[in-house]
Every structure is written in C-alpha cells, then in structure tokens.
Specification:
Bound molecules: fe (ii) ion
Radius of gyration: 16 Å
Largest sheet: 3 strands, antiparallel
Distance between the termini: 28 Å
Structural class: mainly alpha
Strand content: 5-15%
Number of strands: 3
Number of domains: 1
Order of helices and strands: EEEHHHHHHHHH
CATH class: Mainly Alpha
CATH superfamily: Hypothetical protein af1432
Length: 200
C-alpha cells in the first residue's frame, strides 16, 4: 500500500522520503518473512482461514495506514499484525489466544526481531489483551487494536466506531476502505509471493 509517509516494502523495510530535497532512504526494518515462517511452522489452523494470512496482511495495512495519522510505532504495528493471532487453536473466541501469541512473540525476540524493553512490553501487552480490553492510552497499542477491529466485516461483523479508540480509525472513509477489503477477502500479492510462496 502507499501511504503518505511510508511505502510498505514487505521484505525491505520502509522507504521513507528523505528530508527536504535529500535522497530517499531505505531503512532495513524488522523482516516479516522469517517471522511468518516461524508462525506457520507451528500454526495449527488453516493458513488461509479467517484468522490467517489474509487477516494478518489486512491488519498490517490498516495499521500502517492508521499509523500515518496516530504516530504509532510501525515496528510494533508490523509485529502485532503477524503475531496477535499466531497461536490460535480454533477459529472461535479461543480464550487465551492473545496470551499464547504474546508468549510466542517473546520466544522470537532477539532472534527474529529486536525491540528494547519498553517497546517489547507494548507489543506483548497489545497481543495479550487484544480481545479483552477495549481502549488504551498508548497510541501504538490502540492503533494495533483498531487495525484488528477494522477487519471484522470478514466475519460478518459490522465495525462499531464506539469500539475504535483512534480518530483515524473512526474516520468513515477508513471504515469503508477497510470494510470493503475485509468483506471481499482482499489478500495483498506479497502474501503469495513472499509470506507463503508455493513450495518448490
Ligand atoms: Fe485475536
Ligand atoms: Fe485478529
């Protein structure tokens, strides 16, 4: 997707326009491909199920779009997108899946991603409490949760703005954009080419 400040390059990080007339720079960011390989290595549900790859990618893209407005830490948004539902055991409510996702994330720290302690705690909290807490004052945590909720129409659930904590997510245009993608099951091309390419 193209947003105002960032262009998502799934395996290269963020292409960030340089200051003033200077050249653009590419920051090597957290690499999602290895993390997704680790997730899928122990994922017990269908990778293309309602809480699988397509959902993670749409949460990622909603999160990055929101981050443009909320100032959320995009490293945490990216990690949350692919980890928050990574250790589900069923496609229903699955009490405890947030905690399991958080524990799985902790096991990848310092091997597949690096965050300092405060940022790591924010990621863990966002994963752990994404289903049992509605609002949080930290804009990064709230951006993660709003991005997840904006993908509810895929399971025939209308997005209720009263349960979105950022003004960016409550924007009717954002709800409409995310809702159309969610209802239509839009899956970005990089899911097939980079996240889970065909074997061989
Ligand atoms: Fe979840
Ligand atoms: Fe989710």
């Amino acid at each position: 997707m193209v947003s105002r400040a960032f262009r998502e390059l799934p395996e290269l990080g963020y292409h960030i326009p340089g200051p003033r007339r200077g050249p653009s720079i590419v920051i090597q960011e957290i690499q999602l491909q290895g993390i997704i390989r680790a997730v899928l290595g122990g994922y017990v549900l269908a990778p293309r199920g309602i809480h699988g790859l397509g959902h993670w990618a749409r949460v990622l893209e909603c999160g990055l779009r929101l981050a443009d407005k909320t100032g959320a830490d995009v490293r945490i948004v990216r990690l949350f997108a692919v980890l928050h539902d990574s250790r589900r055991e069923n496609e229903g409510t699955d009490a405890g899946h947030g905690r399991r996702g958080a524990e799985f994330a902790a096991g990848l720290r310092n091997s597949l991603f690096v965050l300092d302690d405060p940022d790591f705690e924010r990621l863990i909290f966002a994963c752990d409490h994404h289903t049992d807490t509605d609002f949080h004052p930290d804009p990064t945590i709230q951006t993660c949760w709003d991005a997840d909720r904006l993908d509810l129409p895929r399971v025939f659930t209308k997005v209720d703005p009263a349960f979105l904590g950022t003004a960016a997510a409550r924007d009717p245009g954002m709800i409409r954009w995310a809702g159309e993608r969610s209802r239509n099951g839009i899956v970005p091309r990089y899911v097939e080419t980079d996240w889970d390419p065909p074997a061989g």
